[in-house]
Hints:
- By secondary structure, the protein is of the alpha+beta class.
- 26% of the residues lie in helices and 26% in strands.
- Strands 7, 8, 9, 10, 11, 12, 13, 16, 17 and 20 form a 10-stranded antiparallel β-sheet that branches.
- The radius of gyration is 23 Å and the shape is globular.
- The chain starts with a helix and ends in a 10-residue tail after the last helix.
Amino acid sequence: MRDLRSFLDAAGGAVFRPAQALSVVYEITALQHALEAQGQHPVVCVERALLADGRHSPIGVVCNLTASRELTARALGFSDHRSAARSFAEGLGRPIAPVVLGRGEAPVQQRVLQGDACDLGELPVLRQHTLDPGPYLTAAHVTTFDPDTGIDNTAIQRCWVKGPRSTSYYPYADSHNDINLRKFWARGQACPVALWIGHHPAVSIAAQAKLGYPESHWNAVGGIIGEPLRLAPSVTHADRILVPADAELVIEGFAPPGALAADGPFGEFTGYMGPQILAPSIEVTAITRRENALYHDYGSGLSDMLVPDNMAMEGKLFELLRGVAPSVANVHVPVSGRRFHAYIQLCRPAPEEPRAALAAALQYRRIKMALAVDEDVDIFSEGEMLWALATRVQWDRDTLTLAEMPCSLDPSWPAGARGIAKLGIDATLPVARRAGSPRPFAPRALAPEAALEGARRLLASADASRWPRA
C-alpha cells in the first residue's frame, strides 16, 4: 500500500530528522532554504514541531519530499528523472479507475472532528516568509467537482488559515477549480471542497497531472502510479467528493457564494512576494486524520515545490509537442526558470518542426520562453543549453515572438497589459542538404570516447575531497 509512511521507510538515510524542536513560524522553512543553498536535498521530518504559541504539536511536519529530481523520479517508479516527460505522458494514456472503500475503512478517517470541534490552529501549519500575513496551507490538494458532470478536479492551491474554521482559498483565474467554483456560485450555491494533505509522493505528484476539463484526476493518478488509488467518501460531502483513503489528513467545507476576502501577499513559486488579492473563503465543516498524522508542507519557491509540478508539466508538454513535431525526443522544465522556461530536444527534425514545437509550447499558459535544441545537447545541463544558445543562434533568423499571450503569476507583467510577450528560440542545427549527409555546421570538438573512459577511471581512483569546487 502506498502512503507517506511507506515512502519514508523506503527512503531510509535520505531522511533528515532534526533532533531539536523547530517552530512552524519561519524555522522549518529556513532549514529548507539553508539546505538548498548548500545543494543538499534530504527529506526533512520534524518530529518535534512547535506551534505558533510555543506548544508542542502532536502532529509532525514533513517537507522536502520532492526537492530533487532523482528522489522524485524514484518515488514515481521512473527509470530516470530524464524520462519524466515520456513517463508522465504514457501514464496519462492508460488511466486506471480508483477503488472506493466503505465508510470507516479509510486510515485518514481514524479521527473525525466536526463543527465547532474543528480547530485549524491545532495543525502545524507553517508561516514561511517574513511578509506572509499568516500561516498558509501549501501542500493542500483542493478537490472540487464539476456540478454538470460530477467529475472531480484536484489542484494544489494556497490557503491562508485565518481562524479555527476559516481559510482563504486562491484558485488561479480560469483554473479548473475556479471554473467549478464559479459554476456553483452562478447557481447561488456554496461550492463543496475537500483539502487532502500528506500522501506517498507518487500520489501527490500524479495528482498534479495537467488534464483537460472536465477530466478525473483519480483516473490519471492510477495510470501514472500503475495501480488503482484507494478513495473514501468524505464525511461532509459523502460520495460527491471522494478523498484519498491513505492521506494523512483532510479538511472539508464549503466556499460560500460571493464570499471574497483579502489573501496575501504570499511568497510564490516565482521567488517573489505575490500581491494581495481578493479570494474566495472556505468555511470548514470537518477535519479527519490518522491517529498519528504527519503534516506535509511545500517550501514555496524552493525546489521542493517546483520539481514535482515541473515534471508534470514536462509530461503535458511532451504530449502536446509530439502532436505537431514527431521528432520531439524530450522536454525539460528547469527549476532555474521556475515554471516559465521549457527546453525542447528534437532528433533530426524536419525543417518546419522546431518552430512548430516552439509555437505549441508558447501556447501553454505557464511557458514564457522555449528553447529548442538537437539531440546532441543535454537539455538537463544549463551549461550545455547556454552553449547552444551562444553558438547556434542568430537572433533575427532563429527567434519568434508572440504578443499579448496569457501567463500565470509573471511578476514582470506590466500593469494594465492584456498579456505578455513570449519568446521561442530555435537553436537546432541547419538541415542537411541531402538525406544522410552531414549538417552544414562546424562539428563539435570532442576527445575520443576511449580516452574519456580512461580519464573517468583515473578520477574515480583519485582523492578529490580537497579540490576546489565549482
